Amino acid sequence: MGTFVNNAWYVAAWGNEVRRELLPRTLLGQQILLYRKENGEAVALVDRCPHKLAPLSLGELKGDSVQCGYHGLTFDCSGTCIRVPGQRNIPTEAQVRAFPVMEKYNAIWVWMGDPEQADTTAIIDVPHYGDPGWGLVDGQYLHFKSNYLNITDNLVDPAHTSYVHKNTIGNAAGEEVGVKVEQSDSHVLAYRWINDAPQVPLVERMGKLAGNVDRWQYYYLHLPSISYVDFGCIPVGTEPTEANKDRGFRSFSFNFLTPETESTTHYFWLHLRNYHPDDPQASDDVARLMNQTFEEDATLLEFIQREQERTGVREYARIAIDNAPLRIRRQIERLQSKEQSAEAAAMDCEAETAIR
Amino acid sequence: MGTFVNNAWYVAAWGNEVRRELLPRTLLGQQILLYRKENGEAVALVDRCPHKLAPLSLGELKGDSVQCGYHGLTFDCSGTCIRVPGQRNIPTEAQVRAFPVMEKYNAIWVWMGDPEQADTTAIIDVPHYGDPGWGLVDGQYLHFKSNYLNITDNLVDPAHTSYVHKNTIGNAAGEEVGVKVEQSDSHVLAYRWINDAPQVPLVERMGKLAGNVDRWQYYYLHLPSISYVDFGCIPVGTEPTEANKDRGFRSFSFNFLTPETESTTHYFWLHLRNYHPDDPQASDDVARLMNQTFEEDATLLEFIQREQERTGVREYARIAIDNAPLRIRRQIERLQSKEQSAEAAAMDCEAETAIR
Amino acid sequence: MGTFVNNAWYVAAWGNEVRRELLPRTLLGQQILLYRKENGEAVALVDRCPHKLAPLSLGELKGDSVQCGYHGLTFDCSGTCIRVPGQRNIPTEAQVRAFPVMEKYNAIWVWMGDPEQADTTAIIDVPHYGDPGWGLVDGQYLHFKSNYLNITDNLVDPAHTSYVHKNTIGNAAGEEVGVKVEQSDSHVLAYRWINDAPQVPLVERMGKLAGNVDRWQYYYLHLPSISYVDFGCIPVGTEPTEANKDRGFRSFSFNFLTPETESTTHYFWLHLRNYHPDDPQASDDVARLMNQTFEEDATLLEFIQREQERTGVREYARIAIDNAPLRIRRQIERLQSKEQSAEAAAMDCEAETAIR
To answer: Among A41, A118, B46, B73, which is disulfide-ready with A100 (CB 3.0 to 4.6 Å)?
Structure first.
């Protein structure tokens, strides 16, 4: 069994990637086709003609429908075959799966599981999105050659920043500071405060504060695989209220992980900040520094993925900071077995109907 | 079990590829060595020294024999070892398999199965080959990254030309015209007439006829994998006799498919035409347009091959035009089980001899 | 089961490759990390952090210890974890394997098996190493895409030089001269004399002797995989005493094979000669011609490796010159089963202790 959770909204693409043309993309191991209808709504279909398995993305968009490039079978945006050239009747198997789609935060979200459970209100809330006074960097993408759970491990693990990211978002001051963990049914949170410490390189560069600071790192993992980091710092000794934090140096960083295959992951990210919100130079700096940071992770996690595949080993010696990563993995297993029970129940139900 | 039929003549190379040097080539999953004897006859041996598995093609041609480049073991053109340097006796296992070879239509044909069944009169007949008034393009080759049966599917399927080849040999006029199928023990034929229709791009370009035409497509598949397409058109309403067809615009296109591996295929082709037969420009045009056409197929079929391998799925929804492809696959299965029965019988026979 | 013998000293690197930095290298299928301590001694550890499997070679050298680049776990040169940042206690599983290391003949030798059996006096003796009057070429390396046993086959096989190396160390004179074989528990020797024969290209080029010569080839294989070739020639009819040989044209060529994986091998080599010992041009010539010679082997053996993998066939027709290669393979099997018995005994012993 794989590691995917199907019943979730995943970012499939940034909005500007999906146009009036056929875009193929692999999501959760499935070949998916993305395009927009004439009215601008996005569509997601399985990218495989049920006749001869040709990718529909090699065909043509005809209005809101897709025509296969091999024999012209045509499917509407619900995946129903509406034409087989040269014959009247359409075989019932000539059907491709369509996925529920939403567009929010400039992103195209696809529900990969049971369509009946697709709740359009369940997409994560991004605070301050569109608010004046908050600068936005979005449309960012990296391709990780690693299973997504190695990345979620990493994204609830503030401790690694002292080593992997010492040139951007970490420094030695955090090395000995422990991490606390909380969780609910929908998320796992790992956090810590590093008080009265020198600024990390990125904060220093932005020049909003002077001297030592109290720094917080709140790493949320919204299950199954959206990471949400509340990061910032305030003058030493400031009371850490939300209002004071908003007056300090603060950012919200969202990393939308979408498994591509069991060994690769799409990494979409956006970033909101309360410093130099309207300065394009600051936006460029954030994009560059965060991409540099994530590429440091990508390099490391690719080595780990290869070593896991080579040895068959997945875990090893456990240490205190593994608390949050282990909770995520347990939650993922819980979500997977919930999906399997639902599938088994559905099959029983079908069998019973068949007997009657 | 694989998909190959061994008892058949396959094109292994064009005649001018095989010279007084050692040419390695993979045919039906086997490493084969091709060369010419001093008298010009072509030879096909297994390209593997029985001593240490070195490819004989890394060795040297010595007269009509091949000397291994590792230890000098020498094999004559029947595959018999005639020298082991440093010793007198030659081990009986020091033998490589030799294959029956024919040269016809500028091509080197190899019989990959039981040598006793190799019938040199069984090579397919190419009509008008060498006739004055018929222009020839030969020596053409493409490498397909697809199992050969995906290509035979394609080559008895006139319907796909309206979509895949709309810039060369197809157009929209054929979209709704059905296909008829006939078969014998040695071939499957799919054909149709598209009457009173605009000329397809290639015909128009050649400028032999004017205005609408009656167009025929006869797609023969000579088992296991030689495709033979009789294609042409005549003025609307002309009686379709052979003589009238020969006076119209007509071509015979032969595609000699030789499986390389289960997932790749050698695609040798030649083409005879009754228009501008002596015009090198027309030959160049035919070579270019047909290669363009076949490369359109190659691209599509590579995607399909990869999707078949990825999913393990081979077939899906069936439609009317699958009639001929399905007949071919059934005939291939029939030929394969015939070969297996013969092999089993041979083994029984050996066992009985051993008991006595 | 693989083909490796663990209880042996293997060259892991040339001395000048290992410095005050982290060098990853795969040996016998294991990821190994090499570096030098502050006092210059070389260290070999498993290159994998027991926490998350990150390669330690992506981390940093801290004094004589290695700090993982992911979370800062630090291991001393015995592989013991001495720090887990953010916590006091160190889990017992936080340990990486360290290997016995020796430095000799400018090479770093690693013992890959049971450390208790590592005998530092057991490294092979290289005659005339460092002697005046003997020219040295060392620091040479090639990467073979072949299992090491295909290479040991080759290195006790003087017969192949007539074919594979006819441009450097072989010629036609040797084609019909048989090979004698001797063996002990630690080595297999294949040798022959080719008397009153023209000089081979390399000898001729060096210009030490004139006219025909008596030539010897003594191919030792020190188990499991060090090849040692005593090669030379003397004027025709000279009595072959050690002293006369040393006055003739003589070289000792050592090839230290270290399996990288089951299908690839590190090939370290050094060469001692008694001709033009202090002439850098002669050294350059030897390096160039020997590398050319070994690359001829590498090309051939890569084809053989691929054919073995493709067909699953390892051996085939046997001829007289296979005597020495077959003895080596039997000796390797003997060494492997000895290792397995020792492992089984150790496990029994542990089990017994556990019961008590």
So the answer is: A118
